[in-house]
Amino acid sequence: MVVKDKEQLKKQQMLKEKHAWQEQKLREIFADGRSLGKEELERALGGPLLPKVKFPVVRLVSGHYAPADSPAAWEDAANYLTGHGPLTLDDFVRKFRIHSSLVAALRAGKEIPPFVILPDGTITTSTTPEGQGELARRQASRGLQEKLEEIYRKQPFFNLGSILETPEQREMAVRMIQSDGSYRINMNGVGLWTSPYPHSPKFIVQELKRLTGMHLEAREGPDVLPLTWIATRSMTVQEAADKLKLGMEDILNLCELEELTSFRMAGSTRVWRDEVKAIKYRPDLHKIVKRASKITTLEAADLLDTTPDRIRRLVREGYINPAGEIEKEDGRMGILVRRGDIQAIKERFPSIEHEWALAAKQQRREAARESAARREKPPAGKKRPRRAVTPPPPPAGPLELDHFQQQAVRAALAGRHVLVAAPTGTGKTVIAERLIEAVIERGKAAVYTSPLKALSNQKFVDFRNVFGDEMVGLVTGDISINPYAPLLIMTTEIFRNRCFSEPEGLDDVACVVFDEIHYLDDPERGTAWEESIIFAPPHVKFLGLSATVPNIQEIADWMSEVRGEPVEVVVETNRAVPLAINWLSSEGIILDEDEAREYIEQAVKKRSEERKAERLAAREEEFELRSRRWNRRGARRSRKPLDRH
Fold first, then answer.
1. What integer pLDDT is reported at residue 36 of this predicted model?
2. SMART domains, per this entry (predicted)?
């Protein structure tokens, strides 16, 4: 028993010595960090690798052996990532825990080539598409950062239009600018970013005047951050209200009337401190505030001693401008007007009412004449029976789009520019509705432009019924309703002005619908459409709608050349609503061609007879008048005495 124990201890001692010898040998073999094949490793060790050797040796995918945390082992892990795709950090640690220094570096956010840490935290290599894309993005980011640094040093204010080369860089640039400490400001409708580098106050004032047209005092002093300079020279609406002892709504009303100059900075409205100080000591301040206040149509009617309907009529006919909207108790929207406008029109209002009364009286007279004319018997003649027009039966089931509508919707949803030429009444607006619906679902914004304010107002009401009141806004030259809605209705000139003054404000706009795009050929207003197409941000897609574009392919070729992208043309010649030519008589009767010709012949004949009768009557009247004159003259002669002859 004792002999067996001695033999066991001897074997353990020999195994321990062999382990120590192999560990020492492995250190010598792998001193250069290279990998060895199995046969080569066994020849160097004089036998197979013992299983409990403490020196960390890993078997690679290729079958070779290499020490853990060596370049060869890292290359093997990189090959695994290349073949299996990115791994989360936890999965990478579980699989390659033995590479302690590599794992520690990646956990600390330090990259060891060829490993790449993606923005979502996953691990990949520089040979994968994900890694190559991330390295390309970083390269572009470094180039963009260099441009930004140069802009920071040279200009206190800047916009992204002069920096970006592709639309894809916009999101990256905004993140970099915000991380550098820049803030967004909007003055006089011009959107700018502030430089995080200090500049002289005089240069800051000069740049504000050049970019926004604002005239501010230039005071000498040490260099200061543009944001700090603006913040010290301005105050928030709440601070202005506290200083003037007014409400915040009063301050905003003064800004709308341009009694105070306002601007947006870092998402909030601010006013200039000097202007607040100057207006504080004006003796008529409270009168100005009262004139600037907004009142409902009922309150305005009390001031003019009239009805709310007449106040709304004043707004419709342009005598006063609307100042906004307010939600009523029944959920409908009511109009707000300014008290000052009502007070200014108070003296003129009686004359306006008199004009309305005269117009109403004239309308009643015309209506009475038309009614009397209808009661007269129409000219006799042969009458054909009216052709019966049977309306088409309503479609059964869901509405199915026509072929040209489906083609246009597919192209627009695929992100292409589209031009649609189709007759009136064929459903071009449906294409715009499908595109706008898809854009809003993606969290983006859309713009619908029209050439006329009246058409913009009509589309505003129509789209509100389709998408809801909160989703649609209206921006025209004299009114702004819900201007931050995802769908904005505006005239083309206003969209053109935004492309010039604030292209950054169109970052979220994915598509623009040009209704009546044939105005592009208008000699006076066509430049608004041309400049909108040329200067709109590159990421914006266009949908042009028209019923009268004979050269639509030429327009598409020009747009393709300007935008650098193909434009799909969709043409429909079938008229879904056929045209029928009819005539309207002076009595308000609708006639077809034969009836109209017969009516005209009868009317001409009747008029000829009337004129003949008028001439005969005039001759008889003249003859009778002459007869009376001769009779009176003869009577006077007969009464003369004979001795006077």
1. 62
2. DEXDc
Q: Are residues 502 and 516 in the same domain?
A: yes
DSSP H helices in 320-452: 339-344, 349-375, 403-413, 428-441
Identify which has the larger pLDDT, 380 or 30. 30
Q: Would you state the pLDDT for residue 642? A: 45
- pLDDT for residue 560 is more than 70: yes
* DSSP classification of residue 400: -
pLDDT at 501: 73
Label residue 543 by pLDDT band (50, 70, 90).
very high
Classify residue 81: in a domain, yes or no: yes
- For residues 485 and 585, state if they share a domain: no
- 10 Å CB burial of residue 535 (0-12, 13-18, 19+) is middle
Q: Are residues 488 and 599 in the same domain?
A: no
- Mark whether 512 and 583 lie in a shared domain: no
Gap between the Cα atoms of 400 and 406, Å rounded: 9
Is residue 191 within 8 Å of 497, Cβ to Cβ?
A: no
**What SS3 state is found at 17?**
helix
Q: How far is it, in rounded angstroms, from Cα 324 to Cα 73?
A: 70
Which CATH number does the domain housing residue 554 bear? 3.40.50.300
Quickly tell me which residue has 């504080």 as its tokens.
280
Residue 568 CA, distance from chain mean position: 22
Contact 45, 30 (CB under 8 A): no
Edge-to-edge strand order for the sheet containing 157-158?
157-158, 190-194, 184-187, 262-265, 268-272, 234-236
What is the distance of C-alpha 264 from the center of its chain?
19
Residues 582 and 433 in one domain: no
**Is the model's pLDDT at 382 over the cut of 50?**
no
87-126 as b/e: b if 16+ CB within 10 A:
beeeebbeebeebeebbeebeeeeeeebbbbeeeebbbbb
End-to-end CA distance of the chain: 200
User: DSSP strand E in 453-601: where?
Assistant: 472-475, 480-481, 487-491, 509-515, 541-546, 567-571, 583-584, 590-591
Tell me, yes or no, whether 289 lies in a domain.
no
Q: Based on the domain organization, do 537 and 601 belong to the same domain? A: no
Cβ-Cβ contacts under 8 Å for 525 (sequence gap 6 or more): 451, 492, 493, 519
pLDDT-derived band at 386 (thresholds 50, 70, 90) equals very low
Q: Tell me the CB-side half-sphere exposure of residue 211, using CA atoms within 13 A.
A: 21
For residue 501, tell me if it sits in a domain: yes
Model-level pTM? 0.47
Distance CA 497, CA 449 (A): 13
Quick one: 515 and 419 in the same domain? yes
**Residue where a domain stops, chosen among 127, 145, 177:** 127
- Residues with Cβ within 8 Å of 632's Cβ and at least 6 positions away in sequence, in order, are none
* Per-residue tokens: 266: 């870092």
Please tell me whether residues 41 and 117 are part of one structural domain: yes
Give the CB-side neighbour count of residue 547, counting CA atoms within 13 A.
Answer: 11
Under a CB-based contact definition with an 8 Å cutoff, are residues 311 and 321 in contact?
no
Q: Which residue segment(s) compose the domain that 46 sits in?
A: 24-127
Q: At what angle do helices 428-441 and 453-467 cross, to 10 degrees?
A: 60
The total of structural domains in the chain comes to 3
| Residue where one domain finishes, among candidates 127, 147, 166 | 127
Does 299 map to a domain? no
| Host H or E run for residue 421 | strand 417-421
Distance between CA atoms of 341 and 335, rounded to whole angstroms?
Answer: 14
* Cβ neighbours of residue 475 closer than 8 Å, sequence gap 6 or more: 481, 483, 488, 489, 490, 494
